[in-house]
Amino acid sequence: MKILKFIKIYRYHFLVLLALILFGGFLACLLGQDMNGDLLNYHFYNGYAFLHQKTFYNIQAAQLQGYGNPAIDALTYLLITHFPPVFVGMTLGAIQGLNIFLVFEISLIIFKKYFKNHRLLFSLSLLTALFSTFGAVSISEMGGTMTDNITSIFILTAFFLLLISLKKDLLKYSIILRRFSFMLCGVGAGLKMTNFVYVIALLLASLVIENGLTKRIKNLFYDILSIVSGALIVSGYWCYEVWNHFHNPIFPYYNHLFNSPYFTKINFVDGRWFPKTILDKIFLPFKFVNYQSVASVVSFRDARFAILYSLIIIYILTKIICALINKKIFTKKLNKMQLFFWIFIIASYIIWEIEFSAYRYLLVIELLVLIAIGDIIFSLIKYKAVSILFFTFVLLFITEYTVPMNWGRDNWQNFYFGPNLYQQFAGTNGTILMAKDWPMSFLIPYLPSHDRVIRIESNLTLPGYLTVKNKSAIDNSIVEQKNLHTKFFAIETNLDRSEQIKALKLRGFSNGSCKHIITYVDIDSEASYKKHAYSLCRLISS
């Protein structure tokens, strides 16, 4: 009876959930087939290598990204190899539609303070959730394989559950909800390490809203324990495997702590996106207003963070002025849930800028920014009709103004990467060499199962990263394959082809006969991996 009562009360929520899942799948279908460079470089390959125990048999085939947690990539691989591309996109889009539903539910909680009319509250929250889909990152990854908007589901669910645990009528369940929420955070971070930004932000928000030092320390201990348990559930086995091979469970990251002999003893970070000056750090959101690539490998334009930044300043100044003239336009203070919401948003952004400054890793709070904008607008404008009208205008403006990232899309094909790829590689039966760091590993799953792949150059062998141990691993594997008297082949691209041939010559190989590999991979985007042509060449050992 309780279940039936629960369904009756929340039946409209279930209808919205179903509608937004379908909306995600439909939107993915409209956007076209995802062909992003990370898919070509490692997302497809990692799933294959994990399921077929090839990760450590092959040598650095997918470069440094080939050693990340392959759990979601295994799903990507299975979908691509068993279903038509349009089904793959729609399935991923439907899963990613859960993000939109979570934004809807969080909107209901934050906006409830301003709107007692349930239908109005419901409509505004749904509107906010739908428009949140069209952020520069969110829409660019819808139906795609980059995993940011799949792991975000765990973080947003955790955030939502922590919010509702603060409700007075749910206080008796608050500890259970809290532990489960932080376990979900650990799952999200275990699947994708960049989510630790949000884990730390949630820990900070939880600490600030509590009273009493003893209670804070106690809960912090159990929260961290929950996070670790969640992370271990999804990544413990994989970290153990990577540790066995490289003596660094998250190889090659934080190698200044683990000292793996296969990588330089540094904390590996992509430093291309960090702001250069203090002013750049302070006003970074305003740079996103122009069409640029200061925080991404591909250009984009999005005004939502700049608008939020401006509204926060307006809010603070208005609060100060009202306090000075003793005029109270703020009839209600922030409630506990709003305080938690704002601490999470601000802390996430600050930690993100310090750790990454790469825009795509802002996805979680990009989805929540419109709620934050609405919260300020509704608190500043006390006339509901005016505030709703202004908020709707802001949503429309932001959506119209945004130019999403373009990671690479194609028209829907009958096969994901190309026709008859298994047949095209059927005659290799040997050792495959790859040179340079172009994304080529998506072709490896179509090789004969006994072929071994050795990448002689990658982002692990760049100057400053290559160690004696890593170089020996590559050299020894080539010698080992020669001793087995296998044939040698190379997969090459038309990008830097002369450099690839030069790298092969340094290893004692020259090109024999070559044949073009027919693929659909011809990405028309701003990224450096666009317009590939691939060839399979028989190598002659000198």
Q: What would you say about this model in short?
A:
The chain is of the alpha/beta class. The protein has helices at 2-9, 11-31, 37-51, 71-82, 85-111, 118-132, 138-141, 148-164, 174-191, 196-208, 213-246, 255-258, 278-282, 284-287, 304-324, 336-355, 363-380, 384-401, 421-424, 468-483, 497-506; strands at 33-34, 409-410, 430-434, 452-455, 487-493, 509-517, 534-541.
Description:
This protein is α/β, with parallel strands linked by helices and 542 residues long. The chain folds into 2 domains: 2-31 and 85-401, no CATH class; 410-541, no CATH class. The protein has 21 helices and 7 strands. The protein has helices at residues 2-9, 11-31, 37-51, 71-82, 85-111, 118-132, 138-141, 148-164, 174-191, 196-208, 213-246, 255-258, 278-282, 284-287, 304-324, 336-355, 363-380, 384-401, 421-424, 468-483, 497-506, and strands at residues 33-34, 409-410, 430-434, 452-455, 487-493, 509-517, 534-541. The strands form 2 sheets. A 5-stranded mixed sheet has the order 4-3-5-7-6, covered by helices on one side. It has a two-stranded antiparallel sheet with strand order 1-2. Helix 5 (85-111) packs parallel to helix 17 (363-380). Residues 523-530 have low confidence and may be disordered.
